[in-house]
Amino acid sequence: MNPEIRVRFAPSPTGYLHIGGARTALFNWLFARHHGGKFVLRIEDTDRTRNTEEAAEAIYEGLQWLGLDWDEGPRAGGDFGPYLQSQRTDIYERYLKQLQDGGHIFEDAGALRFRSPREHVVVDDLVCGKIDFDLTNPGTHPDMTIRRPDGSWIFHFVNVIDDIEMKISHVIRGEDHLSNTPKHIELYRALGATTPHFAHIPLILNRDGSKMSKRDEGARVTTYMEQGYAAEAVRNYLCLLGWSPKDNREKIDIDEVIRLFELEKINRRNAAFDLDKCFWLNGQYIAQMSVDRFVELTRPFLEKANIDVPDKGYLRAALAIVKEKVKLLSDVPEWTRYFFTEQYEFDPAAVEKVFGKPEATERLIALRDEFAKIENWTVEEIESSLKTLAQKLGCKTGDLVHPARVAVSGRSVGPSLYHMLEVMGKERVLARFDRMIAQLGAK
RNA sequence: GGCGCGUUCGUCUAGUGGUUAGGACACAGCCCUCUCAAGGCUGGUGCACGGGUUCGACUCCCGUACGCGCUGCCA
To answer: Which of A13, A167, A183, A188 lies most in the core, judged by the most C-beta atoms within 10 Å?
Structure first.
């Protein structure tokens, strides 16, 4: 559609992907996809004191998890590589030479600085509008350093060089860079390069309005991966932070976001990350996703919990009925363990509450006998059998449901009892009833 | 301190020079119900403050306050 549109996400490898960085990457990605342009990933690892390899890995994982595929960059290749700044020193040397030849560079205590032209610079930002910066005073806007005495490069310089070299058309980044932008523009001009369009997006803050740092809950994308969020839910939530479809939709398909996304519609105010709402949206996604996807997303969590499931059909049936109940994928093991083992635990409080009264045991025995007569072990048959018995005994449906639930699951909460029983199968249910009855009788 | 950006329910947001200021999350209550959820219904809380401009401002302008960012040989 528009190959001239080229954007990039340029994180420095810190060992994890920050949720704010993820949102920046997302907006870049949305812009690229909306226009049919290219989304470039570039790793800004100029700071030699930090590790790069493993740290960059966390960024790749996070982006991949969120489905933000990059067209060019590490592992994807591209015509403008290498995409790690640590491998681009020759390029920087070349541009440094150009600046030196133009008389823009001077040395200061071994470091190299760029001499500011000392003018007003107007930043025409797609989100923030036209902003006039007065750079005439060296006292308030010192000449920026572009290379340290040890030869390593400073962000402002290499960032601009790479954006020129990689033909970046739109620089979409956090608002924390807005005040740096006029300095960057001075560099573009000194090099005779065309400045890209800029779009500075608002920052993500904590619920209390404070800046989100790596120690804050929810600051790392890995947290969401580990806690069992569906990537599409987190991505959807992120879309709604600073951007809106403007029609009250909350759960919105990513293709629809791509279609509607425009930089001009981005808010200018910082947004607080509301984990409650992200959690809610996650529940919506889980409830509405296909059983197949749910099974797929759940697998690693079941494995981690050492739940062995040889029968795929049985697994699928069990997961299908807990899907609407679960809010986090990491909750699934506890919600389903009793389906797959006879060694499930009994919640003492649930047992006490339900079997505290003596009638409960008699009712469970009566229910066992009724269930034994069922030929077609289906939800309908189970339900009508139970309800008929309740009527006969003159008790409430719940008086039979609760004992049965505790007997087969050890818990007082769970999915619809009838569906649970159907999935477990007649044989297993009767066996569990018998065991419960025996235990109660032994007391 | 200087410079920049921002300010609609607690939070994310919609919105218009004249609206009962809308939605969502969260919260409370009710309904439904085999539990827990879900779902349905109801409820409360909001245009930061002060000046202008205007017949009229939440909406436009100025100021103040507050918040955030930048002001590094961090990115």
So the answer is: A13
